[in-house]
Amino acid sequence: xxxxxxxxxxxxxxxxxxxxxxxxxxxxxxxxxxxxxxxxxxxxxxxxxxxxxxxxxxxxxxxxxxxxxxxxxxxxxxxxxxxxxxxxxxxxxxxxxxxxxxxxxxxxxxxxxxxxxxxxxxxxxxxxxxxxxxxxxxxxxxxxxxxxxxxxxxxxxxxxxxxxxxxxxxxxxxxxxxxxxxxxxxxxxxxxxxxxxxxxxxxxxxxxxxxxxxxxxxxxxxxxxxxxxxxxxxxxxxxxxxxxxxxxxxxxxxxxxxxxxxxxx
Length: 265
Known about the structure:
The chain is of the alpha/beta class. The protein has helices at about 40-45, 65-70, 85-95, 120-125, 150-155, 160-170, 190-195, 245-255, and strands at about 1-5, 15-20, 25-30, 55-60, 75-80, 105-110, 130-135, 140, 155, 175-185, 200-210, 215-225, 230, 235. Helix 1 packs across helix 2 and helix 6 packs across helix 7 (about 190-195). The model is unreliable at about 1-10 and about 150-155 (pLDDT under 50).
């Protein structure tokens, strides 16, 4: 992903203008603090959509995952949900500058609160076909907190919040709808525990930096209300030995391709 000179915005030179999908998508995001990279693009690539599906991107930040879906699937309707008003305004700019205002919206809401706190979300309850989730990877009190408040909120959340994220996803999905999330590989047990009782037909894709290295990320799909058993998929390898991206990952990052691992989901 490449960076270009920052545009003139109300935030002055606090934002960068970054090209994703080989330049097919241009994203404004803060120069400092939390910055979107490969994770939301892989998350979006895990969904195989048909028709005019409604996708909700939970904890959307500046909108990379949801906008990646909207770029690849021209009939998709996408709702970006983010609690930080500053990031929501940037996401709205990203929607407009990529020509997607007819299919993508961004709303400000805290998904860990009850749906009654957000009339917009309440109106969508049990109507979404897919929910994307890229929750904070750390728990408050474990590890060192980031100095930047936006980065800190993106990186860590209170204990028990992951279960609330899964409860939110279940409340927004239609019966049989799909949740797709990305998390740390060592958080697999916590993820499975949070899914239990609400989701089944869980598929876990380990994501390895190199073929001979342990997985650092997991991509997880699950279906609301399903009782089908868990499946562990063959791992995805990000890099070749020369540090270039593997062919599958290159196709995702540069050309907006979907991941074959979840094609039958």
